[in-house]
Amino acid sequence: NKDLIEKALYLIRKRKAPTQFIWVKGHAGIEGNERADKQADQGRLEDFGDKLEVTIPDNFKVTGARLRGLPFKLLYVGTLNSYKKPVRATVKHKGIREDAQDEVERITGNRPTITMIYKGIRKAPIQNKVGDFIWKTIHDCNKCGSYFAHWKPEAQYCHCGELETIEHIVMRCEKSEQARVWDKIEKGWKALTKSEWPGISIGILRGIGSVQLGTAHKTFWYKILISETAWALWKARNERAIND
């Protein structure tokens, strides 16, 4: 009832005449009190409450309280009510997961479920520590780029000057060795499987646990090459950041 009380107090305060409150004993046959009880009971039975269309000017909005007259319980509840919980980026994460599904479907012809994506990074041949890295990539919570925005802004950027994202670190940075590394991985894949390279993208990395390429041999080597290479590039970036 905080909003209703605030509006009621505003209506009282804007009166020019003094307003006095008198405590009366309930259910004692006092006419005004009895009528108030009836109105309250009538309002309780209504499906929708009456809207009090009142706009409170800023100069009537009072914040804070006198600590001397403030019970601890009221202080505690007020603090909890004023705290705004951070909004979870569910829409963003949903888009990331859908991109992973799209990319896996593009190279395999089959669309994985979200459960398959998560369970896949906890199974061989993907190592546990690499699976943890991919999980963070799915949730976009790797410690890079915007992670540092609020307390170390200069650390948001790669040594090439671009904003660091996991995609930039693993696949896009022109001043690092990504292009040369992935070229070698492609050649290694072709030598091992005698087949065309399916390619690599950030969506494929996030969905790598759910990839099935027709044969166990191809699936095994693709998961190994993608996950271990991305992990190695991420570690190389961390070492460079520490040394710098």
From TrEMBL:
Domain RNase H type-1: 1-45
Family matches, as InterPro entries: RNaseH-like_sf, RNaseH_domain, RNaseH_sf
Secretion signal, residue range per the UniProt entry: none
Gene Ontology MF term list: nucleic acid binding; RNA-DNA hybrid ribonuclease activity
Protein name listed in UniProt: RNase H type-1 domain-containing protein
Originating organism: Armillaria novae-zelandiae
